[in-house]
Specification:
Layout: H1 2-37, H2 43-77, H3 107-111, H4 115-136, E1 141-150, E2 169-178, H5 184-253, H6 258-292, H7 308-317
């Protein structure tokens, strides 16, 4: 959901940059047109300006298509028909702003929140219990069994009149002793099999923890690197803006040809697109860091397990009693 929301904001930002560059390039095209009609410049400069303008305008429909598709995808992820939440996506929000620093705490404690680490840990614990059960078969077992009942009538009789008398009460009790020493080899082999499975579960748990630690470290490196790239690209866009202003000014004053203007405007649009994409990558890297440390998997204590609409539908079909009224436990 967060990644889809970020894609929406990226396309909105790219669409805004495209419209801004259309205005800038339209102004340059108008200047070259006036100079050409006055005989002060060649038709080549005017056609080059027109080509650049049309090229930038051609990107707008693509951004609009991607924006609409991303909004439809977000509606689907939220379980709503297309267009249901478009009014909530205000266009003035922009790409989410990230904090400069993130406190991750103790990675070992955070990694245990991951579902794959939890699953591997619980599998190892369950297999350890199976080893104990298998070893218990090696030793003798004692049990005490008994039964109690009522007997009425004699052989072939159908009289139940004395069913509740004291003489109708019958019971039996006796101990039992089991020691499968004849199957000792089979039981010992079963213990070995369960112990081998335990070792496999422990190795899997270790590999899962190592893999999760690597993913968390990679996510932290990616986040730090993306923040640095965003900072550099922000300065690049500012420099490209200034370069475009100077190139247009020098062209109007006759100190340079129009190729300088073309190059600066192309560079400006390209760097703006790079900055927008990089800001989206930074958000994605933060999301990856959050999920790699086990964030988002824990339940919110005190909140209902299911939504009100789902609970009402289930209660209409089946008598659930108070089970659906319980709040989610704290899984942290």
């Amino acid at each position: 959901v967060v990644n889809t929301y970020t894609i929406i904001r990226i396309n909105e930002e790219q669409l805004r940059y495209a419209h801004e560059n259309v205005v800038i390039q339209q102004r340059s095209y108008d200047i070259t047109g006036v100079l050409y009609r006055n005989g002060s410049d060649s038709e080549l400069d005017m056609q080059q300006a027109h080509t650049l303008l049309l090229s930038t305008q051609a990107t707008i429909p693509g951004f609009e298509i991607a924006l609409k598709q991303a909004r439809n995808a977000l509606n689907t992820l939220l379980g709503k028909p297309p267009g249901s939440i478009d009014h909530l996506l205000s266009k003035d929000q922009g790409i989410p702003v990230l904090p400069e620093k993130i406190e991750v705490g103790l990675p070992a404690d955070l990694l245990r929140r991951r579902p794959d680490v939890r699953q591997a840990e619980l599998n190892a614990m369950a297999q350890n219990a199976r080893v104990g059960l298998a070893e218990a078969d090696l030793y003798p077992s004692f049990s005490l069994t008994g039964s109690i009942g009522l007997v009425s009538g004699g052989p072939g009789g159908a009289d139940f009149g004395d069913l509740f008398s004291s003489d109708a009460l019958t019971f039996s009790i006796g101990p039992s002793f089991v020691w499968p020493f004849l199957n000792y080899g089979r039981i010992r082999n079963n213990v070995r099999v369960q112990d081998a499975r335990l070792q496999q579960a422990l190795v899997n748990y270790r590999e899962t923890v190592i893999q999760s630690a690597r993913e968390a470290e990679d996510a932290m490196v990616a986040f730090n690197g993306s923040q640095l790239q965003t900072e550099i690209l922000t300065k690049t866009v500012v420099s490209a803006h200034r370069s475009n202003e100077l190139s247009v000014l020098r062209y109007r004053e006759g100190f340079s040809d129009y190729q300088r203007v073309l190059d600066s405007q192309q560079a400006l649009f390209a760097q703006q697109q790079r900055l927008t994409t990089q800001r989206g990558t930074s958000v994605a890297s933060l999301v990856n860091l959050y999920t790699s440390l086990g964030g988002g998997w824990e339940t919110q204590p005190g909140l209902p397990l299911i939504s009100d609409s789902s609970r009402q539908q289930m209660q209409q079909r089946t008598n659930w009693g108070d089970l659906l009224e319980e709040a989610a436990p704290d899984s942290r």
